[in-house]
Design brief:
60 residues, mainly alpha, 2 helices, elongated
Length: 60
Amino acid sequence: MLLARALLSGYVVTRLLHFAAYFTGQTNDMRAALWTPGSLIILFMAGRTLQVALGFSGLY
């Protein structure tokens, strides 16, 4: 549960930072740099959920 909380918090922070960058008119490169970690977090959470749902829980 601690991992899920940390990942979701990281996701929310990256989205808020991306919004702030968009709102203040930052470059597309800056916004992309802030968006990418959140996207990677979502991919990891989806993959981990699928892994557990299929019974391949592994080390966790």
